[in-house]
Amino acid sequence: MDVTVSKVDPKLLELLVCPLTKGRLSYDRERNELVSEKARLAYPIRDGIPIMLISEARRIED
Q: In the list 6, 35, 37, 56, which could disulfide-bond 48, CB 3.0-4.6 Å?
């Protein structure tokens, strides 16, 4: 496993919401992202910090 992959504090995950939909986020450990299924966006986590900007999010394709 890559050492640069950070861990997300479960308490932080409970507090964070998608800035677009205000819905829940899930943690994708493999890609190190917070995923909003409703918005179909994945927000990156860089150096342990979630980047909660819509402009920085990756679109999730089917």
A: 6
